[in-house]
C-alpha cells in the first residue's frame, strides 16, 4: 500500500483466521486476513488515514513503531482502546523531515501486546528516501524486505497465551519458512531487516558476506559501517547493503544468542536460502560517508533521569523504578525542545530491550564504555546487571507517551512507564523554529 499525492488511506481488519504457515493451516491473529500483512509505504510530509476494524473478542489498538508523530488524539495514541466490534479511525500527519527507513506497526493494548503480536499482528512501514544518500550508481539497486516473525504452535493454532520466550519456535522471513532470496554475483541489494516478533532476539549472519549498515531503527547513519553479524533486539531494524557472492547457495542464519542466566539461550536457525546466480555484476564501491546527522554529545542537558528495570524472582512481574505500569499515573515529565540524559539500568539477570515512543535517542555509553556515534535509534538492549546512558531531545510534539521494555512479555508484566512531554508549543509542531527529527539542536 503506497501513498499517493501525499495521502495513504487504508483499512486494517483485525480478525482471527486460518492461514497457511509452514505447510499447515493454523488459526492466527491477522491483519487483513494475512499472517504477513501489507507493507505501508509513505513519504516524509505525508498524511496517513487508517481505519482499524476490530473483529476479535479482545480490546486492541495500533502503534506505528518508531515514527516521529503526535502521541495524542487519534494519532499514535497507545492509551486508547478499540473494543470488539468497533472501528477506529486513526489520522497521522508526518513531518516533512521524517527520517527515511524501515518502521513497523503492531498492537499495544496493555497486558495483550505480546499475545496479539505473537499471534501474527505485525507488519512493516517504509518511509521512502533512504537511497538518496547513496551514490547515483547505487540508487537503482533492488530492495528486499526481510521481516523476521516467529510463531509457536499449540494444536491447530498459533500460540497466543502462556507464551514462554525460550520455547521452540518457528522463525519466518516474510511469513515463510526458509524462503529463497536471489541475488547476482557482485550485485548490491538493500535489505530491510526488521525484528517484528513479540519477544525473541536475532543474531543475523550471512557467512562469507558482510552487512553494510546504512540505517538503524530508521535513522540513517553518518558513516556506513560493516559487520559480519548483527544482533537485532526485539523491535529493532537494520537497513543494510549486501553484495552477492560467487555462484552458489548460502544460508542467512540467526546464530546462537544468550540473553543471560535468567533469560534464554536462542539456538542457531536457518532463516532463508540465498542463491547467487546469473550474470555477474561488476562490484560497486560501498561509500563511507552517508547521511547528515547531529550529535548530542555537546548539547546542553536540561535534566537527568534514572530508569531502572527489575523483575521478581519468578519473572512474572516486571517493574520500572519499582512500579508496574499504570496508564493513569504519570511517571516522568520532560520539557519540549530540551535535551535530557537518562541512565537506563538493568538490575536483573537477563537482557532487556529498552524502547521509547515519539522521540528517538542517542546512545552515549554502554556498561561504562563510550559508544561511537553513527546516528539515533529507538531501541537498545540493556545488558544483565548493566546500564546504558542515552540522550534524547523532545521535539515537535507534546502529550503523554511511554517508554518500556520491548520484550512484550516483560512490557505486559508491568515494565512500562508513562512520560508526559510538556511545553508552550502547540502539539501539531507549529512553532518559531522547526526542529528536524533526528537532527537535534547543534552543539552548544
Automatic annotation (TrEMBL):
Q: Which SUPFAM superfamilies match?
A: Cupredoxins
Q: Write out the entry's keywords from A to Z.
A: Metal-binding, Oxidoreductase
- All residue ranges annotated as the Plastocyanin-like domain in the record: 14-128, 166-243, 304-420
> Could you tell me which residues belong to the region Disordered?
425-444
Q: What PANTHER family does the annotation carry?
A: MULTI-COPPER OXIDASE (PTHR11709), MULTICOPPER OXIDASE (PTHR11709:SF518)
Q: What is this protein called?
A: Multicopper oxidase family protein
Q: Which organism is it from?
A: Streptomyces decoyicus
